[in-house]
Amino acid sequence: MIEGAKWRRWVYFYIPLSVFIFWLLFPFYWMLVTSVRPDRELYRPWMAPNYTPFWTAHPTLEHVTDLLTQTLFIRWMLNTLFIASVSTVISLFCGLLAGYALSRLKFPFAGSLGTGIFITYLVPQTLLFIPLADIIRNFRLGDTPWALILTYPTFLIPFCTWLLMGYFKAIPRELEECARIDGATRWKAMVYIVFPIAVPGILSAGIFAFTLSWNEFIYALVFLSSAEEKTVSVGVTSELVRGDVFYWGQLMAGALLGSVPVAFIYSFFVEYYVAGLTGSVKG
Amino acid sequence: MARVVIRNLNKMFNEAHAVKDVNLEIHDREFVVLVGPSGCGKTTTLRMVAGLESITSGEILIGETVVNELPPMDRDIAMVFQNYALYPHMSVYDNMAFGLKMRKFARPEIDRRVREAADILGIEDYLARKPRQLSGGQRQRVALGRAIVRHPQVFLFDEPLSNLDAMLRVQMRVEIKKIHDRLGTTAVYVTHDQVEAMTLGDRVVVMKDGIVQQVGDPLELYNAPANRFVAGFIGSPAMNFAKVGVAEEGGTICAVGDGMRLELPPRIAERLRAHVGDEVTLGIRPEDLYLASGDGADGLSFAAVVEVVERLGSQILLDVKVGSGAMVAAVEPTVQAKVREHLRLRLNAERLHFFDGRSEIAI
Asked: B149-163, pLDDT tens digit by residue?
């Protein structure tokens, strides 16, 4: 907290914070307003006398009902949920084991292996999708959820591994040694001692991985073609923009509903997640 | 209960030779303390006994079994760590029960043992708490409790008291001693604190640079140190050292150093006869120095100038200058000494130590 006179607190704290929050939340507000605005207000020219860009006089749920009944939006949500969950579980599992091994076990080339994993994370997806598309075609997985479930871990596993590696390193080695003297095998010491202590780290890795796959765009765009296989991010943008016609109301409703699950998960685990990122292990 | 035998134990960390040819036999029910400055290999030795560190060469036996290749869980030992190493996500009860659960003890037996250990250590009231809700002393008790419940063959302690404040350290030291007397379990205790080593150990092993310097009961180390290092390490305040030349003058063996000339009585002189003409190190403990009355014609006193007077209550420590060197004398609390005062100190010839100038081995 900022010490000193009241005005200092306003100038250095409240005002910058308010500007920041406004900046951050305005797009969401815009999304909300647009999604409940009737079409006749949406397409009203800006010089019209009753033009009200920042609020609406006649809110309607028509875009939302349209989105849910006239489009495959629910299907897309389910697709995304399935793909994001499965790829998160796979990545988290691999990341846990890899992160533990790289931070705790001594084996030849452990250091360079860790760096190697990190470098794969740095290869841009916009390049990687070309060879991956070839692989997906060879395995005849195109236009199935498995195309994404198997490609998302290419960036999720390095991410989880690195986040968890840092977290495991912060857990005192003695805890595990003590468990092993107490009668646990290395595996049991890992499962009963290290993982429970690393829960904040594991949760934040999971949340991040889930968000990354939920929001992923380019692989989903390239590997999926039929409308009913699409994920939210691709479905909304490709099916609700027809030619040069933008269905703004539905687009915004789709964007809003599409971000709800992620926002929900974040708010639910926020405490763990902050602890996970700041890496605090209390002994 | 079991004995622990260490034979020709060596440990290399890449190029660094951390433990060199350690041989040690720890008897059943004995309390042995490994002591030495940091980096002397004492903790590494303990960790090799625990199975947390691989053995480069040599052999460790617990009971009659060679345990070189046994994983820690199969060695039937319990270890107390310096930073307690309590499992932060478990209650005190679960912390103590963990080892028993891992070994598939029946629930009533686990409960009985945990409560018994909690009773011994006086932590019954905290059983439901998490480690972070405990003070340092309480945490250390839980760590002890976790070792006790297992009824292991050997207790291993790795500097368990170094994270506690001075008062608590003394209190826990007594408690560890009591617990050992009560349970009689063989114990190996590592510390860098020579007071802890002297008070706790049935026998004390002094180590330096990976080599065992001396093994003996505390008084043996104190009264007859094997070399200059042990002499300086054991005892507080530390032993005074002075370089002296050994000379024979008219049948009397003399030790001549900077600011002192001692005529040694025949019994002491015998030990030095072979070193006439050599330079040796003289060692005298602060408590073996007295204020001399008279002019020092007995040949066992020397002039000194007081530099600092430290009043400890039970005794007074005089930091004095002798020639160009410094010494500490522990004198009676009734002594009136002032800074810069010139006085004469007399030493107890029976309690003089001499160390070879080059090898530093006791003469």
From this structure: 988 999 999 998 988
Q: B7 with B21: CB under 8 angstroms? A: no
Helix axes A15-35, A248-278, angle to 10 degrees: 140
Of B14, B36, B12, the residue nearest B208 (C-alpha): B36
Q: Which residues of A247-279 are buried (b: 16+ CB within 10 A; e: fewer)?
A: bbbbbbbbbbbbbebeeebeeebeebbebbeee
> Which tens digit of pLDDT belongs to each residue from B29-53?
999 999 999 888 899 999 999 999 8
Fold for B240-356, please state it: OB fold (Dihydrolipoamide Acetyltransferase, E2P) (2.40.50)
Give the Cα separation of A68 and A77 in Å (integer): 11
Domain boundary among A13, A30, A60: A60
Q: Which of A185, A188, A283 sits opposite B86 (nearest CB)?
A: A283
For residue A277, the model assigns a pLDDT of 65
Q: What are B318-327's contacts with CB under 8 Å, separation 24+?
A: B320/B345, B322/B242, B322/B258, B322/B259, B322/B260, B323/B257, B323/B258, B323/B259, B323/B260, B324/B258, B324/B259, B325/B242, B325/B257, B325/B258, B325/B259, B327/B240, B327/B242, B327/B284, B327/B286, B327/B289
Q: What is the DSSP letter of A2?
A: -
Distance from CA of B132 to the nearest CA of A (A): 6
Residues of chain B contacting A, Cβ within 8 Å: 50-52, 71-73, 75, 77-79, 81-89, 98-99, 102-103, 131-132, 146, 150
The answer to whether A283 faces chain B, any CB pair under 8 Å, is: yes
Q: Which of A28, A60, A92 is the last residue of a domain?
A: A60
How far apart, in Å, are the Cα atoms of B321 and each of A6, B236, B304, B341?
62, 19, 5, 11
pLDDT computed for residue B137 by the predictor: 86
Query: Is the C-alpha dihedral spanning A212, A214, A217, A221 positive or negative?
Result: positive
Number of domains in chain A: 2
d(CA A205, CA A150): 18
CB contact under 8 A, A177 and B83: no
pTM, rounded to two decimals: 0.80
Q: Is A172 on the interface with B (CB under 8 A)?
A: yes
Q: Which of B85, B103, B131 sits opposite A178 (nearest CB)?
A: B85
- What is the predicted pLDDT for the residue at A78? 94
Q: Are B302 and B296 in contact (CB under 8 A)?
A: yes
Highest mean pLDDT among A86-90, B45-49, B310-314, B344-348: A86-90
Range of the domain at A269: 70-278
Same domain, A19 and A159: no
Pick from A104, A181, A192 the residue to mutate for testing the B interface (most B CBs within 10 Å): A181
Cβ separation A181–B146 shorter than 8 A = no
Complex ipTM, two decimals? 0.81
A275 touches chain B (CB under 8 A): no
Domain B4-233: homologous superfamily in CATH: P-loop containing nucleotide triphosphate hydrolases (3.40.50.300)
